[in-house]
Amino acid sequence: MLNFIIMDTSLSLTRIKHLLNRYFIENWKKDLYVGLVLLVIAFVSNPIAGFSSFVYIVMILLYTGRIFGNLAHKASAQHYLMIPASTSEKLITNIFLSHIYYVLLLSVFLVLGILLRALILAPLCDDTSSCTFLIPYISFASYLSFLLFQSILVFGSVYFKKNAFIKTLLSLSAFFFFLTMLVIFIIRMNVGSMTRLAEEFDYYVRNPYPSYLIPSIISIVFTCFFWILSYFRLRETEV
């Protein structure tokens, strides 16, 4: 008589912990090397120029866009999909890794590089302008927009099997191109209403609170939307 073992599909923090432990055991050296590279870049580059912050953002986006990169290869995909964890647990783990862990990890190395530069070079500087050390800062609204972009990259890494990061960027570029063409077409079809649009734009400029609130709400809604899409796509891949 055959005995079937049915895995508990309810959300389990223990299984999420096992997934995180598995990740750290396999990738802690690679993450450390990447962090050290960023630390060196932050140390040798001028913080005012913003090059280290640019590298920081690119590293996070590349990591997020390849968070489900093991699905691109048949052997690694089968191994990953056979892990005894539910779809939601795998998705939550990867969202945590890409949206929280990696962001904080690289932030620590970025700040350490800037502080190390300040400690070593500050006593040697005579010119104040060349010895200004700035810690990168990002507003809450900008962070939500960045979070939305990350959620799109996560969905792209699940949806596309190979070259997910490049294909996701190309898809976004095509979408915004057609959206721009649509806006231009609508404006040309409603030339008479441009005065009203200009007045509304001036209102939002003079009243920044609602202009920040609405995009923030939109970012949160669409971030959750792409997380849900990623869940169903990952579940479809497992099936």
Task: Give descriptors for this structure.
239 residues; mainly alpha
Topology (SSEs and partners):
Blueprint: H1 13-44, H2 51-65, H3 74-81, H4 87-121, H5 140-159, H6 164-189, H7 194-206, H8 208-238
The gist of it:
The chain has 8 helices and no strands. The chain is mainly α.
Helix content: over 70%
**Separation, N- and C-terminal Cα atoms:** 26 Å
Radius of gyration: 22 Å
Write the element-wise H/E pattern from the N-terminal end onward: HHHHHHHH
Number of domains: 1
How many individual β-strands? 0
Quickly count the helices. 8
Which residue ranges are poorly predicted, with pLDDT under 50 across at least 5 consecutive positions?
1-7
What is the 3D shape? globular
Biggest β-sheet: count, sense, barrel? Answer: none
Structural class: mainly alpha
Q: What share of the residues does DSSP label as strand, in percent?
A: under 5%
The average pLDDT is 80
